[in-house]
Specification:
Number of helices: 4
Number of strands: 3
Shape: globular
Order of helices and strands: EHEHEHH
Structural class: alpha/beta
Strand content: 15-25%
Oligomer: single chain
């Protein structure tokens, strides 16, 4: 998941993923102005704070820290 300034929406998004994923990865734009990263970490998501340099690069960063099996599956699906 890629996020920036999603403090209001992130809790319900994470709740909606319960039971669907063993692990959640959130890549947060380092210029976020709210508690997005903190909320992700508190929910147990693997959270990476990094500078936004394009959607493709953010998605790749998420795949890089995702468990290997998940990363392979996402690449096959074109995520």
């Amino acid at each position: 998941m890629i996020a920036k300034d999603e403090e209001e929406n992130l809790p319900s998004a994470l709740e909606g993923l319960k039971g669907l994923a063993d692990e959640i990865v959130i890549v947060v734009d380092d210029r976020t102005k709210d508690r997005t990263a903190e909320i992700g970490r508190q929910a147990g998501a693997k959270t990476l704070l990094r500078r936004f340099d394009g959607f493709g690069a953010q998605k790749q960063a998420a795949l890089d820290i995702a468990p290997k099996a998940i990363g392979r599956a996402a690449r096959r699906e074109g995520v």
